[in-house]
Amino acid sequence: MNRVKCYVLVLLLLFTMTGCGKQTAAPKLKTPASESIQSVKAVCKDIVNEEIVVGYVTGSFSGCYYTSTKENVSYPVALGDKVVKGQVVAVSDTSEYEEQLKQLQEQLSAEKEDISYQKKHLTLEVKQKKEQKNESDDRTGDVVETEIQRLQADLEYQKQVSDIRIQQLNQEIECVKGKIEDNTLRATADGHVAYMSYAATVQSMENVVMISRDDDYYIALQDELSNRARNFFVRAYTTYLGSEQELENIPYSEKEQQIALRNNMKLTPRFALKNDAIHPGDYLDVHIVLEESTNAVTVPGCCVYTGQESSYIYKIVDGRKEKCIVKQGISDGVDTEILEGLDAGEEVYYPVETELEYSGTKTVKKSAISLFANENRIKKEYPRLVDITSGVGEAKLLSATDQTEVKQGDVLATLEVTSGKADVTDVENQLASLKRQYEQQKKAQKESIRQITKQLKQQGKKSSVELSLAELEQTYKEKVYHRQQNTLERALSAQKKITGTVAVTAPCSGTYRGMYEAGREHIIVNSNDYIGTITDDSISYYVTGNNAYKYHYGDRVKVNDTYEGTVVGAFSSATQEMEYTGADGQAVYYISEPQEQMTKAYIQLDQPVEDLKEGSVSIVSNPISDVFVVEQEDIKKGEDDRRYVWTLKDGKPYKQYVRCLQGANNQYWIFGGLAEGDVLLKGVK
C-alpha cells in the first residue's frame, strides 16, 4: 500500500513540474535570493562552435618523379639547394644513349662531309670535261657534254640519297635525345630541394625529389583534425594578424591524391591566406568553424546546467532564483546559445563558489606565446649509399679489399675477364690493317700529286683541275681515315676496360662494406654482380625522427642549445592502405609503410662543427605577441571537456569558461572568456 502511495506522489510531481517559455512556471525556491546572489543578463550576439588547432606556413611542394622504373640514378643537387624550373635534379645512367648519340652525330657529320666532297669533286670534274670539250671536235664535244650531264645527274641522285640519310640520322638523333631526356629528371618549379630519396633504383611515380616552392605558400595543420571537424567543416579563419582573417580551403586534385597514395604522403587540410605579413615557418592559430549562429540569445556556459533529460538555468525573478527548462543551441566554449526558454535581457543566476582554497592571484595581461616547441635526439648520418657492381660480364675474382674506410679511386676488387680477349685482338688487327692501307694510299696520292706538279712546272703552269682533284681526294681520304681510326680506337678502349685484369675502384670516399672477404679469390662473379656498398661521406646531415612531421622544411633549430641550424629536408609521411588486383582478378589489400628516409628530418648547421656526432635538437616557433596567455596549471578541464579558470570578482571566486589553444612551454593562448585586468586564482585545490 505504501508503495502505491509513492507512485501516486511521483506522478503528481511529474504533472506539476514545468519549464519556461511556453511551459508553466517552475516552482519558486523557498529561500529568498539575497543581495549576494550573482547574476548576468542574457545578451544577443553572434556565436560560433569551432575547433582551434595549430597551423604553420609552408611552401607548396612540387614532386619530381619518373614515369617508368629507372636504375643507376644519381643526384646533382643536395637538400636545401636553390633550384629553378627545368634544372636537372636527377639523372639515370645515360652513358649507353650518350655513346649512341655521339656515334649518330659523327655519322651525320660524315654524311655532310661526304656530300660536300662529292659536290666539290663534281664541280672540278665538270670543269675538266669542259676544258676537254673546248679542245675536241664537235663529235667528241657531244660525248663530253653527255658525260657532263651524266655526272650532274649522278650528283643530284647522290644528293637526294644523302638528304634522305641526313633526315633519318636527325630522326634517330632526336629519338636518342628523347631517351636521354626521359632519363633526366628536371625541377618542376622554382624553389628549394626539401626531400631526396637518394635511391639508385626508383619506381615509376615515386617522388625522388620534392621542391618547396618559393612562389606558393599555404597554411598546413600541425595535427590531424577530429572526425567531427572534418565532417562538419563550414569555414576557417585565423587571428594571427590581429584581426579575423578568412582562410581559403585548398582541395587536393585527384592527381595529387594518387601521387600521395603512391608515395606514402600524408595529406592534411591546407588553406590559403594572401598576405605579405606571413612567412614560411610561421606558426599561427587556425579556427575550424563547425556551426555558427547570428544574433543568438547567449549566457555564460557556467550558467547552464544539464539534467538527465533536459538543460536548465536559474532565472532571477523578483530577487529569487527560479529553475527554468531551456533548449541549448551551440557553444563557443565560453558562452552557450539558448534557443528556447530565455529572452535577451533577462537575468540569469551566475554561480559563485563560496568555499575555495587557492594560493594566490595573478592579473591577466597581454604577453607573447609560441605555439610549438620540441626537443629530440639527433645523430650524424650519411644518406647516400652507392652500390658497387662488377661492371663486366662473367669474371674471376682475383682479389678483394678488406678496408672499411676507402677513398675515391681506391681499388675495391680486381677481376679477370677472358671472354673478350679475342674481340680485343680483332679490333687491334683492324686498326693495324686500316693504318697500312692508309699509308699505302697516302704514299700513292703524294706521288700522283708530285707527278702532276712536275708536269705543270714543265708546262709553265702553277695549277690545274687535275691537281685540284688530286689534292681534294687526298684531304678527303685523310679525313675518312681519321674518322675510321677514332671509331676503332673507341671500340678498343671500351673492350679493354672489360677484358683482362679489371680494377673496380671506389667512385667516392666513405665506409665500404664488401660482399667478398679478402682471400676468397677465384670466385666467379656474374654480369654486374654487386661487389659492395659505399656510404658516401661527402654528404652528411644531422638527422632526427620525424614520423609525426613536427619538423618542416625551413624550420630554424638549435643543436645542443649552442649551434644554430636549419631543417633542409622533411617529408610528410604516412602509412597507406594499398589495393592490388592479381592475375586472378582478386583484390588484395595490404599496408604500405613509408621508406625510412621519409620519416626523418635532415638538419644542416650554419657552421660545421668538428667531432659532433650526436646530441639534441630543439625548436621553438615564432613568438606571437599581444595576446592573453595563461599557464597550463591554471587551466582546468570539465567533465564536458571544456576548459575553464577560476577568477576573482568582488572578492568572490567564479568559474570562468575560456576558449583557448594549447601552445608551447605549458601555456595556453586565450581567445575568449578573459579580459585584461581580470584576476586569476592560482593554486586552486
What does this structure look like?
This protein has 685 residues and is an alpha+beta fold. It folds into five domains: 17-93 and 190-351, no CATH class; 97-182; 375-382 and 539-620; 385-419 and 499-536, Beta Barrel (OB fold (Dihydrolipoamide Acetyltransferase, E2P)), CATH 2.40.50; 424-482. Helices cover 27% and strands 37% of the residues. The strands form ten sheets. The protein has a six-stranded antiparallel beta barrel. The chain has a six-stranded antiparallel beta barrel with strand order 19-28-33-30-29-34. A hairpin with a 5-residue loop joins strand 31 and strand 32. Helix 2 (95-134) packs antiparallel against helix 7 (465-497) and helix 6 (421-458) packs antiparallel against helix 7 (465-497). It is elongated, with a radius of gyration of 43 Å. The two termini are 49 Å apart. Mean pLDDT is 87; it is low at 1-36.
Overall form? elongated
> What proportion of the residues is helical, as a percent range?
25-40%
Which segments are poorly predicted (pLDDT under 50) over 5 or more consecutive residues?
1-36
Strand content: 35-45%
How are the strands of the largest sheet arranged?
2-7-10-9-8-11
Chain-averaged pLDDT: 87
Q: Would you tell me the structural class of the helices and strands?
A: alpha+beta
β-strand number? 41
Radius of gyration: 43 Å
Largest beta-sheet details: 6 strands, antiparallel, barrel
